[in-house]
Design brief:
Number of strands of chain A: 24
CATH topology of the largest domain in chain B: TIM Barrel
Distance between the termini of chain A: 46 Å
Shape of chain B: globular
Number of helices of chain B: 20
Order of helices and strands of chain B: HHHHHHHEHHEEEHHEHEHEHHEHEHEHHH
Helix content of chain A: 25-40%
Oligomer: heterodimer
Helix content of chain B: 55-70%
Structural class of chain B: alpha/beta
Number of helices of chain A: 16
Strand content of chain A: 15-25%
Largest interface: A-B, 36 and 35 residues
Largest sheet of chain B: 8 strands, parallel, barrel
């Protein structure tokens, strides 16, 4: 498939359309792709550095819906391999970084084409490896494609830009150069999209990349790296280093790494920031960290909201993909006048949610990613005092890592359910005196990623938008589903640092700027 | 597509259309004139129209008149100067504390009056008098129970209960109605007086576009129960069609249940075909195929509509990068409407055609075509909406046709979504009614799409 950029670098970006799953033939196509994938499992995910491949499996990824099913047999990179990978990358980066931007942009676009051709297969892979329900898995592939295409165009724009003031006898030029080697430490919840986005941004601006996929989703990471190599990224420029936190830690501390792009938990993000801040002996640069961390996202519901609209949006925001999105809603701050009605209807609506395996189109809520996640969520719920009213949906029998979708009313303000990001299918409902009281609560939080508001008063919408600290504010709709170019995504405060992913400024983080000022006067005469 | 000239048919369409266009002089018809002028005034400015729609939408959620006035002020603030003097006066009154409550009360009265035009009554019992009056004026009726969205199992069951009771109430009331042979039978057999339209999406909270089976399994028992009650009461049960997100679920389930042995003897039942869907003719193929395979005592009634969710379907598709399931051009829908009209009329009595439109041309075309196919005057049913098609219903009855008026019943809170849709329809730029109210000439309105 030829891509748009290949034909014309200036074509306008458009989002890759998701599948229209309400049509039966589209669903049938995905089910076929899954059956085909299942025949190929498990997938070997070797350490891949330049042309060297080491396939000596040391850990597995499994299907959270049916943990007996092994999805990938992966080889964890050793610390020596990490060091070697960074060295190979640094070497290969010089030639890659010296290429014209259009060549790198074309490689991204060709890689997007590879992903496009494998759309059904990759959605099936995300269903199996991360228990993403079909619609979400399909959207993950589309978003990966979007990132590649969006950043390809962004890199061309960055290359073309020369915004400086010019004077007679003086020539001012702004150039952007790759910083060097980037370490990409990716999450499992958008195992294709976020990994592809961070990696493509680094590559297209001329950096080499060492990719560390989440230990839960190495096969998805491999698929993206394969597509990029097939698209024309030289072997040496992109390394795949499967493994756990130790691999990530080694990458962060390697003195030859210049940029660290991380998406994951706040605790790990802060540790990366700490480590990256102190240069190793002989290190001649400062590491730049781009960190997308979590949120404790609140949805404010004013008294004039239409509950017919609010309830489906809350269910979607809090429970789709079992709440395992950093944008997911975890607290509802509802005007006391309609709080009882909302709680009552939400409880009823909760029981319409079906928990089940991700590959079943009838599933609303899939299992969580692993037993640790389940234990963490259940323990936060168990710690709630007797004053809390907990409503939980049913879970199926079977070995999946099920967590019942849960609504909590009356949770103490200092309980973990209210204060911590649980990354699971749990939503609090908290009555407030009004929208301004709700804004005070949101303002008191450390995290500020997404926020929601349901109101039918334009004045209220403007008032809350003006004071909300969050990075992505959703009005009268669900709080998840940001798309590259349409809703550049990223949080403020403790939720992260760096420009928004899928936005125009994102690529600036992967380059250093050089300003060249040349005197063009000789003996009082201009030479040009 | 239909280029061949049909001079005879065209002449009939023009004659029928001209006759239907004559406004009646009944007291009710005269009362409607100023209301239409008001809506027409609103329709002219898109910002005023948006403000009005938002106000109607939020009204049931407002705590009191002052709260409603506060919202009015917010909406009018977005209108700017384009609204002209009346808007400026209303905005001023909504802003000043002294007049705010009064303004809110006035707005509420106006909204209630508007709602009453479209909604017959809060309950079937309260609507009984009005329904009897409509019947005595020569119109048949289909009652639709308005409700909030069904989001819980209890809400689905409550809607099913309301429908069940309404079927019995309607059938009981209808026994006292004056006999009217035109409304009570056609060449295919008797037509029930009591007629209820139901929404399957209100019977179940499990409508999942990508898993139609869940909603089907959940709604099936409710639907069977309603069919049983309708059969016992001798009423007609009509299943409405909504957006594409529920189409597969509704369509498959209804046809499969109606084919069950238990329901072959009754009741009279029907479904809806939406001509604005690009694949509506393929749906018709399926319906006709089903009808020829399925022996039932009374033929399936197929209500042909243009479709009421055009904006929603279009926006959703564009946002997702899909080809919209609806025609982009209004003329395509109108042409499709006429093609399906003919096929339905050709298929009588395998199915019963019920042509639902406020477009004079569409109705006149159906009547003229059925005449050319030598159908009896009572073998074609025309349908209009309460509030939008009142003049037409009156004219159709006067000219001897069977017109059924789709009549919503419900309280203001649950009726608001319906009301907003009707207002949108009435004031949209390519609305036949708006064109007509704006004085477009009859020849162009009756021209072939």
């Amino acid at each position: 498939m030829t891509s748009a950029v290949l034909d014309d670098p200036m074509t306008q970006f458009t989002n890759e359309p998701v599948r229209e799953l309400r049509r039966a033939p589209e669903r049938a196509r995905l089910e076929e792709a899954l059956a085909e994938l299942d025949r190929r499992l498990p997938i070997a995910v070797p350490v891949t550095i330049g042309a060297r491949v080491r396939d000596e499996p040391s850990f597995d990824s499994v299907d959270p819906s049916d943990p007996g099913r092994i999805v990938a047999r992966a080889t964890a990179a050793t610390s020596r391999e990490v060091e070697g990978a960074v060295r190979v990358a640094a070497e290969a980066q010089r030639e890659w970084g010296a290429r014209p931007a259009i060549e790198r942009a074309r490689a991204m676009s060709r890689a997007a084409g590879e992903l496009r051709e494998r759309r059904a297969e990759l959605a099936a892979l995300a269903v199996r490896e991360c228990a993403k329900p079909w619609s979400q898995a399909d959207a993950d592939v589309c978003e990966a494609i979007d990132f590649l295409e969006f950043y390809a165009r962004g890199a061309l724009a960055l290359d073309a830009a020369s915004p400086l003031i010019q004077m007679p006898g003086e020539r001012n030029t702004l150039r952007h150069r790759a910083r060097g080697v980037a370490a990409v430490i990716a999450p499992w919840n958008f195992p294709l999209a976020i990994l592809a986005g961070m990696t493509a941004a680094a590559l297209v601006t001329g950096n080499a990349v060492c990719v560390k996929p989440a230990e839960q989703s190495p096969a998805c990471g491999l698929a993206v790296v394969e597509a990029l190599r097939q698209g024309g990224v030289p072997d040496g420029v992109i390394a795949l280093l499967p493994g756990d936190g130790a691999v990530g830690g080694a990458l962060v501390e390697d003195p030859a790494v210049h940029t660290i792009a991380f998406t994951g938990s706040g605790a790990v993000g802060l540790e990366i920031l700490r480590k990256a801040a102190s240069p190793a002996a002989g290190q001649r640069h400062l590491k730049r960290v781009i960190a997308e961390m979590g949120g404790k996202n609140c949805v404010i519901v004013d008294a004039d909201a239409d509950l017919d609209e609010v309830i489906p949006a809350l269910l979607d925001s809090a429970f789709a993909f079992a709440g395992q999105k950093c944008s997911a809603a975890s607290r509802t701050l509802v005007h006391e006048r309609i709080a009882d009605e909302l709680l009552d209807r939400m409880r009823g609506a909760l029981h319409t949610l079906r928990v089940g395996p991700a590959e079943d189109f009838e599933t609303d809520v899939p299992p969580v990613i692993d037993p640790d996640a389940r234990a963490r969520i259940e323990s936060a719920l168990a710690d709630l005092g007797p004053g809390s009213e907990i409503e939980r949906a049913a879970v199926p029998a079977g070995p999946g890592y099920w967590v019942a979708p849960t609504i909590v009313a009356g949770a103490p303000a200092d309980s973990g359910v209210v204060t911590s990001e649980l990354f699971g299918p749990v939503l609090t409902i908290e009555p407030v005196a009004g929208v301004d009281a709700a804004c005070e609560i949101v303002d008191g939080l450390g995290q500020a990623l997404t926020g929601g508001l349901f109101s039918r008063d334009p004045a209220t919408i403007e008032r809350v938008a003006a004071r909300t600290p969050v990075g992505n504010f959703y009005v009268n709709r669900a709080t998840t589903g940001a798309m590259p170019g349409r809703q550049p995504f990223g949080g403020n405060r403790l939720s992260g640092m760096g420009f928004k992913a899928g936005g125009d400024e994102y690529l600036l983080q992967f380059v250093d700027a050089l300003v060249i000022t040349e005197n063009t006067v000789r003996h009082g005469l201009p030479i040009e | 597509m239909e280029v061949q000239a049909e001079p005879e048919l065209d002449a009939d369409i023009a004659e029928i259309g001209r006759s239907l266009a004559r406004r009646g002089h009944s007291a009710a018809a005269l009362k409607r004139v100023p209301q239409e002028r008001g809506l027409n005034l609103v329709g002219r400015d898109p910002k005023v129209r948006a403000a009005l729609l938002q106000l109607v939408d939020v009204a049931p959620a407002c705590e009191n008149a002052a709260d409603l006035a506060g919202h009015l002020n917010s909406y009018l603030g977005q209108v700017g100067d384009s609204g002209g003097r009346p808007v400026a006066i209303a905005a001023g009154a909504a802003r000043v504390p002294g007049t705010r409550a009064l303004t809110g009360q006035a707005a509420r009265v106006a909204i209630n009056r508007m709602a009453h035009r479209f909604i017959v009554g809060a309950t079937p019992e309260q609507a009984a008098g009005e329904l009897r009056l409509m019947w005595s004026h020569g119109n048949a009726i289909s009652v639709d129970l308005l409700g909030e969205a069904t989001l819980t199992e209890a809400e689905g069951a409550a809607y099913a209960d309301r429908c069940d009771r309404a079927l019995s109430t309607l059938a009981l009331d209808a026994r006292g109605w004056r006999a009217n042979p035109l409304l009570e039978s056609d060449a295919a057999g008797p037509l029930p007086r009591a007629n209820l339209s139901v929404k399957v999406t209100a019977l179940t909270p499990l409508v999942r576009p990508q898993a139609p089976g869940r909603g089907q399994r959940d709604a099936a028992e409710h639907l069977r129960r309603l069919l049983r009650t309708a059969a016992e009461a001798g009423a007609h049960l009509h299943v409405d069609m909504e957006s594409m997100d529920s189409r597969e679920m509704v369509f498959e389930m209804l046809l499969s249940i109606l084919a069950e042995d238990e329901f072959r003897s009754g009741p009279s039942a029907g479904l809806v075909l939406q001509a604005y869907l690009r694949d509506s003719e393929e749906m018709l193929d399926e319906i006709i195929g089903w009808a020829s395979r399925t022996e039932r005592a009374s033929p399936l009634t197929v209500r042909l509509v243009k479709g009421a969710y055009w904006d929603q379907e279009h926006i959703e598709a564009i946002q997702h990068g899909w080809v919209p399931p609806v025609w982009s051009e209004k003329a395509d829908s109108d042409r499709c409407f006429e093609r399906i009209t003919r096929r339905l009329i050709d298929a009588f009595p395998l199915v019963r055609p019920a042509i639902a439109s406020h477009n004079l041309r569409s109705l006149a075309h159906a009547i003229a075509y059925s005449r050319h196919r030598l159908l009896g005057i009572g073998d074609l049913e025309l349908q209009v909406l309460r509030g939008l098609g009142d003049d037409l219903a009156e004219a159709l009855a006067r000219d001897g046709y069977r017109a059924r008026v789709y009549s919503p019943v419900g309280d203001l809170v649950s009726g608001m979504a319906y009301l907003v849709r009707r207002l949108l329809e009435n004031t949209s730029n390519d609305s036949f009614l708006a064109d007509r109210a704006a004085g477009a000439d009859l020849d162009s309105l009756l021209a072939s799409p």
